[in-house]
């Protein structure tokens, strides 16, 4: 940061926070910066945790590609809270790669889990979503339970050139709550006959797909099955499967425990939101 007049220096500082926050957002959360608060319930200090997952799994459950990317953004709407400390607790035992914004005190975060600016006299920018922390988790080859949700598809050849298909899902991470889960299963070309025998949630047949919808998957409702018969068909007809959901719980076990004033450590009321969803989640 160059020395200069106070106004020019402040503008440079704010510009850097915003522009580098935008660069982080382009990787993990390409939502527009300077957007209006999501709800009227947001406090003057608002935190947003956003995670996106890219996962490809094989038919035998092996994970071929796994990458989780996350971004924590901070939005301050009242100048009296410009100089604050955000306390983040990391209870995740997996090898998360954590990266703070260049203007954030890296050592304070590493040793204390505190997000604060390197230049303590500076306030955070007002009325902007500023990216302050990024994280990334890549798949370890030895960990086939890294997926938040496992989906197994078992098509077997039946009588008269048809297939009996059994699909089962199971929540692998008990701390998650997945909502509006959709599993899209392709169907053979032509005009096959489809008979569904058993299901949780609801299903619809749309074009060349069966769309299986489950309202909620959580620790209490962690498994479910869909069974159907298709004729004519071969096992390869039912791949790839695509899975989507929304969630207000995060895969990485990062939480904001408190926000405090930099000057005296007094508590600051804050709100937070969490968004976790897959960009791509397919079983091939």
Automatic annotation (TrEMBL):
InterPro entries: AP2_Mu_C_sf, Coatomer_dsu, MHD. Residues 42-284 form the MHD domain. It is a peripheral membrane protein. The keyword Transferase does not apply. Its main location: cytoplasm. The keyword Amino-acid biosynthesis does not apply. SUPFAM superfamilies: Second domain of Mu2 adaptin subunit (ap50) of ap2 adaptor. GO terms for cellular component: COPI vesicle coat; Golgi membrane. It holds the Pfam family Adap_comp_sub. Signal peptide: none annotated. Keywords: Cytoplasm, Cytoplasmic vesicle, ER-Golgi transport, Golgi apparatus, Membrane, Protein transport, Transport. It is found in: Cytoplasm; Cytoplasmic vesicle, COPI-coated vesicle membrane; Golgi apparatus membrane. One of its GO terms (biological process) is protein transport. Belongs to the adaptor complexes medium subunit family. Delta-COP subfamily. Oligomeric complex that consists of at least the alpha, beta, beta', gamma, delta, epsilon and zeta subunits. The coatomer is a cytosolic protein complex that binds to dilysine motifs and reversibly associates with Golgi non-clathrin-coated vesicles, which further mediate biosynthetic protein transport from the ER, via the Golgi up to the trans Golgi network. Coatomer complex is required for budding from Golgi membranes, and is essential for the retrograde Golgi-to-ER transport of dilysine-tagged proteins. This is Coatomer subunit delta. It comes from Euphydryas editha. The lineage of its organism: Eukaryota, Metazoa, Ecdysozoa, Arthropoda, Hexapoda.
């Amino acid at each position: 940061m160059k020395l200069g007049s106070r106004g020019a220096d402040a503008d440079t500082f704010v510009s850097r926070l915003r522009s580098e926050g935008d660069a982080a957002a382009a990787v993990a959360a390409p939502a527009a910066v300077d957007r209006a608060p999501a709800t009227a319930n947001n406090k003057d200090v608002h935190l947003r945790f956003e995670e996106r997952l890219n996962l490809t799994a094989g038919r035998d459950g092996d994970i071929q590609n796994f990458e989780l990317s996350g971004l924590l953004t901070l939005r301050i709407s009242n100048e009296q809270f410009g100089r604050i400390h955000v306390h983040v607790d990391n209870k995740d035992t997996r090898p998360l790669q954590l990266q703070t914004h260049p203007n954030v005190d890296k050592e304070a975060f590493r040793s204390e889990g505190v997000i604060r600016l390197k230049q303590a006299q500076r306030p955070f920018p007002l009325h902007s979503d500023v990216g302050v922390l990024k994280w990334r988790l890549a798949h370890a080859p030895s960990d086939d339970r890294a997926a938040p949700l496992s989906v197994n598809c078992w098509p077997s050849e039946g009588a008269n050139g048809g297939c009996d298909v059994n699909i089962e899902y199971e929540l692998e991470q008990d701390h998650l709550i997945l909502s509006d889960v959709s599993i899209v299963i392709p169907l053979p070309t032509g005009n096959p006959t489809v008979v569904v025998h058993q299901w949780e949630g609801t299903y619809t047949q749309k074009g060349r797909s069966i769309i299986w919808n489950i309202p909620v998957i959580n620790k209490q409702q962690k498994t479910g099955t869909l069974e159907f018969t298709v004729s004519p068909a071969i096992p390869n007809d039912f791949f790839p499967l695509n899975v989507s959901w929304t969630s207000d719980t995060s895969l990485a076990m990062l939480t904001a425990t408190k926000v405090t004033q930099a000057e005296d450590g007094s508590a600051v009321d804050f709100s937070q939101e969490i968004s976790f969803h897959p960009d791509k989640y397919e079983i091939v």
